[in-house]
Amino acid sequence: MSKKTKRRLKILKKVDSKKIYNINKAIDILKKTATAKFNESIDIAINLGINTKKSEQNIRGTVLLPNGTGKKIKIGVFAKDLDIKKAKLAGAHYIGMENLIKKIKDKKNLLDVIIASPDAMKIVGTIGSILGPRGIMPNPKLGTVTNNIYQTIKNIKKGQIYFKNDKNGIIHSIIGKINFQKEHIVENLKVLLKAINQMKSEKSKGVFFKKVTISTTMGISVNLDYLNL
Predict the structure, then answer these.
(1) Domains of the chain
(2) Model pTM greater than 0.90?
(3) Which terminus of the chain has a lower count of CB atoms within 10 Å, N or C?
């Protein structure tokens, strides 16, 4: 086990790992303990009461956070003809077909999100082994395979995020930056939880939200009282 730094030990003294904090107190703790020299992200981990071996119980989708994420998202678009112009107008960072394939192969972490028009999916499929493991393979269910290239890019730049539970039934996501106003963090949090709750399968029995924690990039987790938001 690695030795805890003085900074880490100082933070640990301010948080009771067994206590469940109301949202206002939780955010106050994060703000007081966010001492990194950069604008830390606020991350959320939602432990769901689902059986991940049952495909119908797995949760994945998108939601537009009203106050954005504060994160600069690099967007790539596979498109041609008129869609290239639309992508440029919307502010996509990289646009192309074969040339974009080469860029992604050369630098696998080049992009955070990839959008494709339906007629471009054949060529996108040739790098599925690269995009799939990173969770950025365009998918019509997530709206990233679309004929509405312009609006999709705009939504993502405004704060639309993709969420999906892992094999342990936990959804990890970003809900803002530590310099956000408290009410903006709370609003983003509520919108995300509502979106996930609406996707609950009728076959999921028992408690759906088992545990919710929030943390900063370099901080520790704070247990959240999600029932009284």
Answers:
(1) 18-68+160-228 (3.30.190.20), 75-158 (3.40.50.790)
(2) no
(3) N
